[in-house]
Structures are given as structure tokens and as C-alpha cells.
Design a protein that fits this description.
This protein is mostly helical. Helices cover about 80% and strands about 0% of the residues. It is a multi-pass membrane protein.
Length: about 475
């Protein structure tokens, strides 16, 4: 296929939908832990909040390493079968992800130390299998299409799927759990099982519906490794800037998700408001996701990304100062989450562009190393985002299932709005000042890569003819 054909190839709506189902399924299994696992630890297992923070910190640092391992594994593949380079991991790793995601909500009567060790081990095991599944899913985009607009659409479909998964977890988890009246801990377990099964079938749908068209293997003699995955970050300036910005945005997003269940219960005195907030704010995210492709075509990825960060920070600051009622809380949350739609969608649209940049700069195309180098920064961010709420809940004096003090309530408000809003501002400054890979430069890089490939093929053909002539002589 020519360079022009590759850059203009249009994907079918069916394939885009299938790709979106991948992040819908993975988020069903991931977000039940992000949203409710800390509360399960504190309220059902009786752990101190800082124990939960330490569990998140240890397990997420471990899964950051497993992401790098996944990148090495993907780039090491030589014998690519009919299922492709990335799709087999989506198929085979999704089952243990669903199994462990459910097992994390199993309440036991063990001593606190044993509970903590078991919870840490399960969280680490979840991270291992989730890395194999989700890193392969994300790294697959350059193999699906080279068209930058189609990549932006895939990112939008991915974010749409992720948003729907998060929406269902936010809106439906607590009401479904509440239907199981005989045991609160059984409610957590059975609801987690339901969400995990739905996530599993969604991942299988993604596997069947997408196609890898541009499969490349690393040249002989190039051995991928963990160190090279780090080098993929530091030798690739656009990727490094994106990692730093993403470190801020993902930490902000995960802190907000972890704290919102406490905030609605103790500050607004209505835990069921979480479902309403989730319904309206995730609806705003879906609207934002639908607007991403058209916005990118008109303004470019970087400008749309920065606009999303501005809305995010503005919504959080408005909520901190004036979101004292349920209506205003939901309204300002909608503004912030509408902004996150553009940010989170374009995080995934920008990463594939850095693959071509890395190939252009180094001569080596390594989707796995680039993508997992990027997800390494996301896991470090998630580790901090999981650690900080647990530690801060202890610092502000949180005690489960009682009326909280005024100092604790102010601490919850700061964790919910000031920290995420501040991190969004830092991300905006980072991208604004240092990210230089715009659409025009990307197009020139693709053209130069095409010319290099054409030249290499001509040289190989010439060498082949010379060998034939030598044999004939």
C-alpha cells in the first residue's frame, strides 16, 4: 500500500465501534477498583485508610514495571500468527483480569496483616494481567491505521468506551450493590462479578472486530529491553512531554474518582448523588468525545488538548468556591468532566504520533516500547493518585461511618477540587511550552519515512539484481 493510501485509509464504523468496546470493557474491570476498592478496604475489611494508600502505591509501582515488560514482550515478537501481533493478548489476558478484579472484593476474616498482604498480592496480580491486556490494546493503533484523523477518531471511540464504562461504574455500582440486602460485603463481591463479566465479553468483542494492517517486527540484532523502553521516552521529546503532562492529568483524574464517593457521602450528605453526578457529568464527557474529531480537524490536537485542560481547571475551581449545593456541584462537575473528555481522548491520539517520531529520529519502529514507556508514566501517576488519598484521608482525620469534623470536610473539598485543578494547570503549562509535534510536522515526518522506506527497497532490489548477475557470470 502506498504512503498516500495508508494516510487516507478510512476505517469502517463497525471496526471503530469494536475498538471502543475494548476500553469500555477494560474500564468496567478497572474502574470498580479505582472507585470503590479503597472504600471496600476501609469500610468492609476494616483497614486504616493509609493501609489502602500503601497498597495502591506498592501495587501500582509493580504494574508500572509490568507495563515495561509488556512492551519488551510485544517488540520481541518475531513469528506473528494469524491473530496478529497485539490481538492475542487482548483475547487471552482478559479472562484472568476479570477473575482477579472480582476476587479483590472478597471479604475475609483474616487478621489485618494477612488481609493487607492478600489485598496487595491480588492488586499486583490484577496489574500484571491488565498490563498484558491493555498495553497491547493501546499499542495496536499504529498497526490499525496510519491516517492521523482516523487515529483521532479511534482515540475518540476509545475515550467514548472508557467514559461509558466509567459512567456505568459510577451510576450503577452502588444501586446494584444496594439490591443485595443480606450482606454489604456480598453486595460488593456480586456486583464486581457482574461488571467483570460484562468487561470480559466486551474485550472479546474488540478482539473479533479490529484488524492489524501494518504489522512490523524489529530488525534482527535489535533486542528490546526495559532500559530501551526508558530510552524510548527520553530520546523522544514529544513523548517525554506527553508523559509529564499525563502524569499530572491521570493523577488528578484518579484522585477525584477515589474521593468523590467520600465527598458525596460526608460533605453533601447524599451518597446516591454520586449516581446523578456520574450520569450528567459522564454524559458531558460523551458529548465532548463526539466533538473531538471535528475539533481536532479545525484547531489541531494541541489546541484542543489545552482547551480541555482550561475547562477542567475552571470547573474544579468553581466547585471549590461555589459548589456547596447538590445542583451547583453537579453543574460545575459537568464543566470539569467535559474538559477531561478532550484531554483523555487526545492522550491516546497523541501517543501513536510519537511512534513515527521515534522511528524518524532513531530508525527503529518500536510501538511496544513507546506505548509502554508512556503507560509507565501513567502507572506511576496512578500509584501516587492511589497513595495520596489514603494518606490524606488519615491526615485529615477521616473515620468511617461517623459525622466528620469541619477540618475533615475541608480536607475532602481540597482533595476533590484543589489538587486536581492545580495538576490540570501544570499539565497545561507543560504542553503549551514544550510540545512541538503539530500536524504539519507530523505529515512531513510521515513523508520522509516513506521516502526512506522507498530508498531502502530500491537498494535491496539493486543488491538482489547484482547478486543474480554475479551468479550468472
Amino acid at each position: 500500500m502506498s504512503n498516500y493510501d495508508a494516510l487516507t485509509l478510512k476505517l469502517s464504523l463497525r471496526e471503530k465501534f469494536a475498538y471502543g468496546m475494548g476500553d469500555f470493557g477494560s474500564n468496567l474491570m478497572l474502574c470498580i477498583g479505582t472507585l470503590y476498592l479503597l472504600k471496600f478496604y476501609t469500610d468492609e475489611l476494616g483497614m486504616p485508610a493509609y493501609y489502602g494508600g500503601i497498597i495502591f502505591l506498592v501495587a501500582k509501582f509493580f504494574t508500572a514495571a509490568t507495563d515495561m515488560f509488556t512492551g519488551v514482550l510485544l517488540d520481541s515478537r518475531r513469528n506473528i500468527g494469524a491473530k496478529g501481533k497485539f490481538r492475542p493478548f487482548i483475547l487471552y489476558a482478559s479472562f484472568p483480569v476479570a477473575l482477579v478484579a472480582t476476587a479483590q472484593f472478597l471479604a475475609t476474616e483474616f487478621p489485618l496483616v494477612v488481609k493487607t498482604v492478600l489485598a496487595t498480592a491480588l492488586f499486583m496480580l490484577f496489574g500484571l494481567f491488565y498490563s498484558l491486556m491493555n498495553c497491547s490494546y493501546g499499542a495496536m493503533v499504529p498497526a490499525i491505521t496510519k491516517n492521523p484523523h482516523e487515529r483521532a477518531q479511534l482515540a475518540a471511540w476509545r475515550q467514548g468506551g472508557a467514559t461509558l464504562g466509567l459512567l456505568l461504574c459510577t451510576v450503577a455500582f452502588i444501586p446494584i450493590k444496594s439490591l443485595i440486602t443480606w450482606s454489604s460485603s456480598a453486595g460488593y463481591l456480586l456486583t464486581a462479578l457482574l461488571f467483570s463479566l460484562c468487561g470480559l465479553f466486551s474485550m472479546w468483542w474488540c478482539f473479533r472486530g479490529v484488524k492489524e494492517r501494518y504489522i512490523q517486527v524489529l530488525p534482527e540484532g535489535h533486542k528490546p529491553g526495559i532500559l530501551k523502553s526508558f530510552c524510548a521516552i527520553f530520546n523522544n521529546p514529544p513523548l517525554l512531554v506527553l508523559c509529564i503532562a499525563n502524569l499530572c492529568t491521570l493523577a488528578a483524574f484518579n484522585i477525584k474518582l477515589a474521593i468523590q464517593v467520600y465527598y458525596t457521602q460526608y460533605v453533601l450528605n447524599d451518597i446516591h448523588l454520586l449516581s446523578w453526578m456520574g450520569f450528567f457529568s459522564m454524559g458531558c464527557i460523551l458529548i465532548g468525545v463526539l466533538l473531538v474529531p471535528a475539533s481536532v480537524r479545525r484547531f489541531g490536537k494541541k489546541q484542543v488538548y489545552l482547551g480541555g485542560l482550561f475547562l477542567w481547571a475552571a470547573g474544579d475551581l468553581l466547585n471549590f468556591f461555589w459548589g456547596s449545593t447538590s445542583v451547583l456541584f453537579v453543574a460545575f462537575s459537568c464543566v470539569a468532566f467535559f474538559g477531561t473528555a478532550f484531554v483523555n481522548s487526545l492522550n491516546w491520539a497523541l501517543v501513536p504520533d510519537t511512534v513515527e517520531y521515534g522511528e524518524w529520529k532513531t530508525g527503529i519502529r518500536a510501538e511496544g516500547s513507546v506505548y509502554t514507556g508512556y503507560t509507565f508514566s501513567r502507572k506511576i501517576s496512578a500509584a501516587l493518585a492511589g497513595f495520596l488519598p489514603g494518606i490524606m484521608l488519615t491526615q485529615i482525620g477521616y473515620i468511617p461511618n461517623i459525622a466528620q469534623s469541619s477540618g475533615t470536610l475541608m480536607g475532602l473539598r481540597q482533595l476533590m477540587f484543589i489538587w486536581p485543578g492545580g495538576l490540570a494547570v501544570i499539565a497545561a503549562l507543560t504542553m503549551s511550552l514544550f510540545y512541538k509535534l503539530n500536524e504539519q510536522r507530523f505529515a512531513s515526518i510521515i513523508e520522509e519515512l516513506s521516502q526512506r522506506k522507498k530508498f531502502t527497497e530500491e537498494q535491496e532490489n539493486l543488491n538482489s539484481k547484482e547478486k543474480v548477475s554475479t551468479v550468472n557470470i
